Amino acid sequence: MHMLYNSPSFSVVKFDIQVNEPAPGEFLQANPELQLHRGGYEIVDKFSRKEIFIEGALAQQFQDGVEALIEQDPTEEDLDDYIESFASMGHQPVVMH
Fold first, then answer.
1. Is the pTM for the entire model greater than 0.90?
2. Which residue from 5, 85, 88, 95 has the least number of CB within 10 angstroms?
């Protein structure tokens, strides 16, 4: 788990989890370079107090967009605008325990 971004409006945390699921015949154990990885991004909208966890193709799209944006030397507002396009899909309320 890595905090990637934290502004007054949003926070983004990356989760990268290695999955040790043996394939038939223990193929993955014989080939450790083929270990599966699973993870995604948790995006929290601090104003609406909602969050979303994205993974798979959507997470890859998010990552690609952030990398392209970083190349343009964005402002915090630029990053927040991009993150908001994903955060607006969040419906899970943020609950403190």
1. no
2. 95
